[in-house]
Q: What sequence folds into this?
């Protein structure tokens, strides 16, 4: 059986979607980390929704966030070529990326999650029956693209119009006020919890990536200051979500904790940010994995995962 040490590794980054710049940052960090581990690595900037691997590639490390890389398309192309790759498979990637379909699974499998409604905005803005406040989300975008917390009817119209740019269906979710948490999961095991504290507003693209937008910012606390009982409940909810979606290898699961310390799973990210300062590496570091060791471990688990 091939081991990661004797394979040529292609780190796929960029992609054609709205998260291209973030993916390039993740990809460069993973490339440098694997190279520092002494592995044979080549960087591949993917600009279109097609697959073109360097000759001799034995493992594709997928660090393409969002469209094409995280939604099952790239995974399908890799599977057709019989090429080993990192992370979740095509079916679980597609399911986890679709907030509507994953929400249905959470409800079916009793994973705690906020109530929701789907509205169709194909013929113009369609308002939900849910009472304000609520959260408006495009079902198939990542990095909080098109996400709005809505507290007035005027805000609702603008938010629904914005989200509808990304597709006819819009997800409207019950607003849960509380702590924003995220949990890394590697091979079914939960990492220490990260508490996300935006300096203003909510954890949108501006606060996630101040280096990209030039404004905003967020403070992170890991491990989160929670009781052992609450910590266990949040980690269980994250692992339950990961397993309910059938995710392989690793993911980062976003969770809200309300004032009564009840966890609500929002989504599972199957290609989470992978710079050294990203949230999955932060929690992995707390669990004892240096960044390079984490990247290598993801590759090793992926090689042993049937496709």
A:
């Amino acid at each position: 059986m091939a081991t990661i040490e004797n394979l040529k590794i292609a780190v796929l980054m960029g992609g054609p979607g709205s998260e291209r710049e973030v993916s390039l940052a993740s990809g460069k960090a993973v490339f440098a980390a694997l190279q520092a581990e002494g592995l044979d690595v080549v960087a591949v900037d993917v600009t279109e929704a097609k697959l073109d691997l360097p000759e001799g590639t034995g493992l594709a490390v997928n660090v393409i966030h969002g469209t094409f890389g995280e939604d099952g398309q790239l995974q399908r192309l890799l599977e057709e070529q019989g090429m080993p790759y990192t992370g979740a498979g095509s079916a679980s990637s597609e399911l986890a990326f679709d907030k509507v379909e994953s929400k249905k699974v959470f409800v079916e499998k009793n994973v705690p999650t906020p109530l929701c409604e789907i509205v169709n905005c194909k013929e113009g803005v369609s308002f939900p029956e849910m009472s304000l406040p609520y959260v408006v989300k495009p079902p198939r975008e990542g990095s909080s693209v098109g996400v709005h917390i809505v507290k007035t009817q005027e805000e609702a119209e603008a938010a629904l119009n914005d989200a509808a740019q990304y597709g006819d269906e819009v997800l409207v979710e019950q607003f849960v006020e509380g702590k924003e948490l995220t949990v890394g999961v590697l091979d079914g095991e939960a990492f220490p919890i990260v508490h996300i504290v935006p300096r203003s507003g909510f954890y949108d693209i501006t606060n996630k990536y101040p280096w990209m937008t030039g404004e905003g910012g967020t403070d992170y606390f890991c491990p989160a200051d929670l009781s052992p009982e609450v910590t266990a409940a949040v980690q269980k909810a994250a692992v339950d979500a990961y397993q309910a979606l059938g995710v392989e290898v690793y993911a980062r699961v976003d969770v809200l904790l309300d004032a009564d310390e009840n966890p609500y799973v929002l989504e599972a990210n199957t290609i989470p940010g992978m710079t050294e300062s990203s949230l999955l590496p932060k929690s992995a570091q707390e669990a004892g994995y240096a960044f390079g060791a984490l990247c290598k471990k993801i590759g090793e688990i992926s090689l042993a995962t049937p496709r």
Summary: The first strand starts at residue 8 and ends at 14. The mean pLDDT is 93. The two ends are 15 Å apart (CA to CA).
